[in-house]
Amino acid sequence: MSDNSVDPSGNTEAFRAFTQSGPEEPAPASKTPLIIAAVAVVVVLIALIAWLAVG
To answer: How many CA atoms lie within 13 A of 42 on its CB side?
Structure first.
């Protein structure tokens, strides 16, 4: 049975890339909550303006 694990020390180029790789950057934060909050604020402002115009 073959071993599917790759040993980075078996290839000089792969080993150098393995040792020089920095820590992974965290994934960017999702902007979905910010967009939902902005839409909610706009809806509330439009409703307030409409209520003041009618009243």
So the answer is: 6
Evaluate whether 8 touches 14 at the Cβ level (below 8 Å). Answer: yes
Residues 46 and 40: beta-carbon distance below 8 Å = no
Interatomic CA distance for residues 36 and 24, integer angstroms: 29
Given a cut of 70, is residue 2 above it in pLDDT?
Answer: no
Whole-model pTM: value is: 0.50
Tokens at 55, concatenated: 């009243």
Contact (Cβ atoms closer than 8 angstroms) between residue 15 and residue 9: yes
